Amino acid sequence: MATILIVDDEYAVRTTLGLMLKARSHQVIEAGSVAEAKAIIDRHRMDLVITDLRLGDGNGLEIIESLRERGDETQSIVMTAFGSIENAVEAMRLGAYDYLTKPVNPDELLMRVVKVLERKLLGEEVSRLRAQLDGRPDSPLIAESAAMRGISELVQRIRSQDVPVLITGETGVGKEVLARAIHQTSLRVSAPFVAVNCATLPEDLLDSELFGHVKGAFTGAVAQHEGLFGQADHGTLFLDEVGDVSPRLQAKLLRVLQEGEVRPVGGTGSTRVDVRVIAATNRDLAGLVHSGAFRADLLFRLNVLPLTIPPLRERRDDITPLIDHFIELLRHKTDRPGLTVDTQARRKLVAYDWPGNVRQLRNVLERSFALSDRETLDAEAILFDNLSPSPPAHEAVPTGTALKSLSEVELDHIRRVVAACDGNQMAAAKRLGISRSTLRRKLGLD
Ligand SMILES: Nc1ncnc2c1ncn2[C@@H]1O[C@H](COP(=O)(O)OP(=O)(O)OP(=O)(O)O)[C@@H](O)[C@H]1O
């Protein structure tokens, strides 16, 4: 069964097609305009969109384009009047899977739908296998240093205790990998592990993502939506960047943690859920409580077991096994079984300070191998981020003419933080304690 959106400004066409697909047990949602269709795909994950090209308020191509921009797995089929094949060709160039000429022949429609859904399933299987090769979702937790060994021993010790865990640590230290490892070691292993980044979604969207919504709760809520708490039932919900949750949603979260019940947006009743919450943050939650930005009672609930992952530069014993782990993943991914790094390159990697932690180490290795046609990387071939080219582990204090002005030092620092955050301006601005627009201005981007 798939969720299919049918877009046509002719009521009769979309209901007829809708009935045919419903008879094949698909869940069907209808839209009569580009605007309505876009509002729906913003809120709901569709398996397939079937759209007419000529619509009252615009062109169906706009819908195909916004699906492409989102880069998700939603497939699309366009319907076009006989004789306007050029539009269909354009739609397929934009990523539509297939086209149908109007009036639509029912058998042909059903056949194309089966084909496109099969393709989608295949695509998902490929992504799942690729994700496994990439080290997700069953990524092992590399833990060689004393600090990380201590953490993994603790994870083993609490495997049968369902306590909420709060993981803290700088960006890229492996908070999500640790959360997955906790889930996989726990008795909830056969139920889902669901992760959400609380900093990336606007408040209202996070609300309905977490708690779900009922049909008609707001414009575009054309069907009921279960929410991540529901999806993670009997499993684990990982709330990344929990320090960014708004006060209103903090109150809702607290209620779920206290009562074990979720109330969807627009709903009156609540549903019982059994979810273990693991939260993570790279912010100082105690400080946020102090300044009134985070609820003390919520922190108390989340922080039953606090785990802090130290930055990579404070546990250099992990660097070598991480290098080996990432190279092994790359060998599979790139089909270059001979990939390796020589002793000098290894030394250089172990000595570096890694402001972006394990994520940066992984990126540096991927980039260096991608840009080299040799199988063995030497120290020269190790390419640190463009913005902070190969800085030494401990920078010497510059003297004489090399002394920089305050604004140059500031700019250097901003660039380094942006590099540490993998170019993510939002994350960099947050770490620097300035707004994104200030960051862009200081970098001369606006
Ligand atoms: N101990 C580890 N073992 C294996 N891989 C790791 C480890 N730590 C981090 N990684 C890898 O480093 C990358 C970043 O890890 P992860 O996303 O868990 O970091 P994070 O602390 O959650 O980052 P952020 O604060 O930005 O959310 C991922 O590719 C992950 O697979």
TrEMBL record:
GO terms for molecular function: ATP binding; sequence-specific DNA binding. Residues 141-370 form the Sigma-54 factor interaction domain. It comes from the Bacteria. The modification 4-aspartylphosphate is found at D52. Keywords: ATP-binding, Nucleotide-binding, Phosphoprotein, Transcription, Transcription regulation. Transmembrane segments: none annotated. This is Sigma-54-dependent Fis family transcriptional regulator. It comes from Acidihalobacter yilgarnensis.
